[in-house]
Structure formats: C-alpha cells, structure tokens
C-alpha cells in the first residue's frame, strides 16, 4: 500500500473545473445552431435569396453531438438547439435523442429548442419522448397575410397547429415575437392575450443588427421601453425577479395572469450576468452575440483532437469571452456581419 492509496482518484482537472471566463462568469448555457437553412425567410433575419453553406462546412450530427457533449462534461447545464430552423435538419431527432442521454444521467438539466413551429406538429411527440420539456416558438403576428409577408411565404396556420400539438404532447410553449414598428406594433396586446389564454409566456424581442438583410432595419426598430410604457397605460405589469442570465426581463400581466418578457439587447446592459455561449453549425464558438470573437472547434476536431484537447480549446475560447457587446441600431451597417440564422438566435 502506498501513502496515496486511500485518496480517492481525482477527476482530471480538464473535465472537473466549470467553464469560467476571464471576467469570472460561469458559462453553463450553450446555444447550438444545427443548420443555417430554414423553410422561412423572415425579413429581419434573412435576405430573400440566401446562399446557404456547402454541406461539408456544416458539422455532421456526430460532430454536433461530440462538441455539445464536451460542453456538458465541462459543466454546461442547458442546451438550446436553434438555427436556421432546427426541425428542417435531416436526422434532427437522432441528435435530440442522443443528447437526451445527458438528461437521463442528470448531467444536463435542460434540452430545449427554438423553432419557427412549421414542423412542430410532426415532431412534438418525439421531442417530448426524448426529454424535451419546453420549446420556444417564434410567431410575430396573428394575421395570416402579415405572417406571409414577414416570413416571405409562411403559413401561420401550421405554426398555430404546431403550438397546439406541442401543448398536447405536454411541452410548455413560450412564444417569441420580434417587435416591429410598422408591422405588428399595434397588435402586441392581442399577441399577449393570445399567448396567455393558452398558458404560454410571451417574449418580445427588439430587432438586432445582425447580418445584411434586404430592408433597412432601422425603419422597423421599435424600442421595448416604448412598448412597455404603452402596455402600462392599460395593464398592470408586475416586475418578476426571474433572471435567465440573458437579456430577458420578465413581468406578470395582472389582468391576464401570464408572463411577458422583454429582450432588449440594444437598450439594456445584461452582459455582466451573461452565462451563455453559441456554437454555429460550422463549429465556430462565439462567446458573445454582439462581437466577432470566434474559436474554430471544427478545425480542432477535424484535426483529430482528443477529448482533452477539445476541452482545452473550449476553455481557451471561453476564457476570451468579451466583457460586453457592441450593438448600436443607429449604424447602417450591421454590428456583426454574420446572420442570426448562422449564429443561432
Ligand atoms: N428558426 C427558429 C425561429 O425562428 O425560432 C430559430 C432560429 S431564429 C434565428 C431565433 C430567433 O431569433 C427568432 O425568435 C427570431 O425571431 C429571432 N431573430 C432573427 N433575426 C433577428 C434579428 N435581426 N433581431 C432580433 N431577433 C431576430
Ligand atoms: Fe428562419 Fe427563424 Fe430566421 Fe425566420 S427567424 S428566417 S424562421 S431562422
């Protein structure tokens, strides 16, 4: 017996220490974009004619699983699958079921997704069976014609059927709506009522200057500070302490009993509590939505890195997480050249 035999073996420091950035923020939330493709072309997100990435540049399902699992081993507790539209990725359910194994072990607390809802009716039962408990569905209007215009061809009925199917499968649904000055501003109270009547939270999002799109997005920018003031002229909004570590702030609408979130990346500073990083479908790690910082994890794994080397590369990227973002709607050029559909919203 050696003097060390009674000391329990320590897990390797690479795997054991949580991911903490250079400013002391623990990173526990990964947003994983599984594709840059989408069946819609929302005006604030994509150009009408998009050139999508060649397949070879996009991570395979196995590569997505490997990198996501490395994050889980480093303390990631929540993964949100996004895109593009995650439910148009071929084999998507294999990825969801695969990552579901981390829910079963308890290593991962939540696996969720953000979807445009067009294929949710088809996938909701399988998502629930794989351990998904909540989904975010993007829906900016209750008017079929406006929906068709904003998404360049989308069918609102399909999205609403998707919401109903998700709820029938036992999933909680949060509705996301981008606030647009000339399109849906007057309709926001209706959207809130629609969501709350169905037991859904609703989160309003301010437009962000990401990627070149056809329209001049400054024309449609609507400050949520103004939306809130307008809603408060006829509703009672009670601040909720709920914090997700992101840019959302929540209130309860006393009259409907439901929750309403405001995502205001442009008019509020949320960076000091930021707990999240994003991985694009090409394997680039972005630790800040509003900065160009990037770590190419695809190059790392395609060069044959071991799990320890991958973990080191992730740590290096997280260590360099910028202190804060740099958005400013007044600029004509996007603050960040990549599209939201590439980064994952
Ligand atoms: N396709 C899925 C969907 O629409 O929910 C997931 C990806 S989408 C990029 C994620 C979220 O980002 C959506 O709620 C969408 O409305 C939002 N989004 C896209 N472009 C945006 C922009 N420029 N400013 C603010 N939100 C944006
Ligand atoms: Fe597609 Fe979502 Fe972008 Fe709309 S917001 S174009 S649904 S990725």
Structure characteristics:
single chain, 345 residues, alpha/beta, TIM Barrel, twelve-stranded mixed sheet, 30% helix, globular, binds S-adenosylmethionine, binds iron/sulfur cluster
Number of helical segments? 11
Assembly status: single chain
Distance between the termini: 56 Å
Cα-based radius of gyration, to the nearest Å: 20 Å
Number of strands: 12
Strand content: 15-25%
Please tell me what the overall shape is: globular
Low-confidence stretches: 1-15, 328-333
Structural class by helix and strand composition: alpha/beta
Helix content: 25-40%
CATH structural fold name: TIM Barrel
The CATH class label is Alpha Beta
Mean pLDDT comes to 88
Order of helices and strands: HEHEHEHEHHEHEHEEEEEEHHH
Q: Provide the CATH superfamily.
A: Aldolase class I
Summarize the structure.
This protein has 345 residues and is α/β, with parallel strands linked by helices. It has 11 helices and 12 strands. The longest helix has 14 residues.
């Amino acid at each position: 017996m050696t003097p060390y035999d009674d000391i329990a073996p320590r897990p390797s420091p690479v795997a054991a220490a949580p991911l903490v950035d250079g400013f002391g923020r623990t990173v526990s939330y990964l947003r994983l974009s599984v594709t840059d493709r989408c069946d819609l072309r929302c005006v604030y997100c994509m150009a009408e004619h998009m050139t999508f990435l060649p397949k070879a540049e996009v991570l395979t399902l196995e590569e997505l699983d490997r990198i996501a699992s490395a994050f889980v081993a480093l303390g990631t507790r929540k993964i949100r699958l996004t895109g593009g539209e995650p439910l148009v990725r071929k084999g998507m359910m294999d990825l969801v079921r695969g990552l579901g194994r981390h829910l079963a072990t308890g290593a991962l607390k939540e696996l969720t997704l953000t979807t445009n809802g067009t294929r949710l009716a088809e996938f909701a039962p399988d998502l629930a069976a794989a351990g998904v408990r909540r989904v975010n569905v993007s829906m900016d209007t209750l008017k079929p014609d406006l929906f068709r215009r904003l998404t360049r061809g989308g069918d609102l009925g399909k999205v609403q059927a998707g919401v109903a199917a998700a709820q029938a499968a036992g999933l909680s649904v949060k509705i996301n709506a981008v606030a647009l000055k000339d399109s849906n501003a007057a309709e926001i109270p209706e959207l809130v009522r629609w969501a709350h009547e169905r037991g859904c939270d609703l989160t309003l999002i301010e437009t962000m200057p990401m990627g070149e799109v056809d329209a001049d997005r400054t024309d449609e920018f609507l400050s949520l500070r103004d939306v809130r003031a307008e809603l408060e002229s006829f509703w009672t909004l009670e601040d909720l302490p709920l914090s997700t570590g992101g840019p959302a702030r929540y209130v309860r609408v006393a009259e409907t009993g439901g929750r309403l979130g405001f995502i205001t990346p442009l008019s509020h500073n949320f960076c000091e509590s930021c707990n999240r990083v994003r991985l694009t479908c090409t394997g680039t790690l972005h630790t800040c939505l509003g900065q160009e910082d990037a770590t190419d994890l695809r190059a790392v794994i395609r060069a044959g890195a071991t799990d320890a080397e991958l973990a080191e590369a992730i740590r290096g990227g997280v260590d360099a997480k910028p202190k804060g973002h740099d958005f400013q709607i007044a600029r004509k050029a996007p603050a960040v050249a990549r599209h939201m559909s590439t980064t994952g919203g």
